[in-house]
Specification:
Blueprint (H helix, E strand, L loop, with lengths): L1 E2 L3 H19 L5 E4 L5 H16 L8 E8 L11 H16 L5 E7 L7 H9 L3 E2 L10 H16 L2 E2 L1 H11 L3 H15 L4 E2 L1 H7 L4 H13 L3 H15 L7 H24 L8 H9 L19 H10 L5 H20 L4 H13 L23
Parallel strand pairs: 1-4, 1-5, 2-3, 3-4, 6-7
Helix pairs in contact: 2-3, 3-4, 5-7, 6-8, 9-10, 9-11, 10-15, 11-13, 11-14, 12-13, 14-15
Length: about 375
């Protein structure tokens, strides 16, 4: 049994096992039973087809491989709770117990499973179970796993992606394997067969998840991309009209956190704790070597407690800023805070001025030349 919430890994592993077993068994009598059921009746029929396939010997002799594919009634689904499905799985469990497995092999690929149920315990006892858990923000290695999934899928499609575009895709989608696969499919179609996918394609095609949208403005600041930052700021103010949880102060605090992180990471580089050529694994390893007592225990002020992916992104972006520019940026944001709280100026205009003051000089993180804007302190007229 190959199962778990990581649908892509489950399908990939089950297909690999099925192909290997078919090659070893030879013959032409192998069967694939699609056990994806919309209701209890379809589930019972699928189980009956699997039992029939197992009990039907190969016509030309030899061994037979049966793949019970896409099972969706082994967890807490509505169909799984019915008596008819429970009884049919009990019959299949008895068949599995009674077989000698000299002439047949069975693969079951499923999504979420209830490990407390008799059927799962029977398979676990008599055979082998592979569990593929879904990606989670709580897993510090989820970014590396997501990157591995992306590269495997790219190999299948024949497309290629730059490291920056892979990073951007992960940042936009987050720990969601199914959504990552959907977005790669869209990108491959967008670029054409065998095309190289760049960051511009990710920006144009990929659907940003809610958590990615929340950090998009701060990431544009990190990339020193003023036009994009101003556009995203405008989008944020439009969304405030329908989302009462968002506010100008909330946007400001997000920018403060980003600039503070860039400043700390730049200091890490200066002190030799980090270098700008590190990948994700190198960042995680380097952070583990920094003495924890170097920082306060509060999460917002302790980069060592942040996810290494955040540090990696900041590390890539620090090259766009000098240290004194980041210090000056914090001063601009402090002044912005005072104006938002105590003045009658339009909040959007106040934040726009702060962004122009922070991003208007210097080079962007991607190294591309962009239009120069006025220096901080000059009067900006709306």
């Amino acid at each position: 049994m190959v199962c778990g919430e990581d649908e892509f890994s489950v399908k990939l592993s089950a297909k690999r096992v099925y192909t290997e077993w078919c090659a070893l068994a030879a013959g032409f009598d192998h069967e694939i039973v699609d056990a994806s059921a919309a209701n209890a009746g379809e589930a019972v029929k699928s189980v009956a087809r699997v039992i029939e396939a197992l009990q039907t010997l190969p016509f030309f002799g030899g061994s037979k491989v049966v793949w019970m594919k896409n099972v969706n009634f082994l967890g807490d689904e509505k169909a799984a709770m019915t008596q008819a499905v429970t009884e049919s799985l009990a019959v299949l469990a008895d068949v599995v117990k009674g077989m000698k497995w000299e002439d047949a092999r069975l693969i079951i690929s499923a999504g979420k499973v209830d490990r407390r149920k008799v059927f799962f315990k029977t398979i676990e006892k008599l055979g082998r179970v592979e569990l593929h858990a879904g990606l989670s923000m709580d897993d510090r290695d989820w970014v590396m796993k997501a990157e591995s999934v992306i590269r495997l899928r790219l190999k299948e499609t024949g497309a290629t992606m730059s490291n920056a575009s892979i990073s951007g895709l992960i940042e936009s989608v987050g720990p969601n394997v199914r959504q990552l696969m959907n977005e790669i499919e869209k990108l491959s179609i967008y670029r054409g067969d065998g095309g190289r996918i760049e960051m511009a394609d990710v920006d144009a095609v990929v659907s940003r998840q809610r958590q990615a949208k929340a950090f998009a403005l701060a990431e544009a600041v990190g990339q020193r991309d003023l036009p994009r930052a101003l556009r995203l700021l405008e989008e944020e103010f439009w969304s405030m009209k329908t989302d009462s949880k968002k506010s100008s102060i909330g946007l400001l605090y997000g920018l403060i956190s980003k600039i503070r992180l860039l400043l700390v990471v730049k200091e890490f580089v200066r002190l030799g704790h980090l270098s700008t050529n590190l990948d994700y694994g190198g960042v995680a390893s380097a952070l583990a070597k920094i003495p924890p007592e170097s920082f306060p225990s509060d999460l917002p002020f302790n980069p060592l407690k942040m996810h290494p992916f955040q540090i990696l992104k900041a590390l890539e972006q620090t090259e766009a800023f000098e240290g004194d520019e980041l210090v000056a940026a914090l001063g601009l944001l402090l002044e912005c805070n005072r104006k938002l709280v105590s003045s009658s100026l339009d909040d959007g205009l106040v934040l726009q001025r702060a962004l122009i003051g922070i991003l208007g000089e210097g080079r962007p993180a991607d190294g591309k030349e962009r239009e120069r804007f006025r220096k901080p302190g000059r009067e900006i007229r709306s």
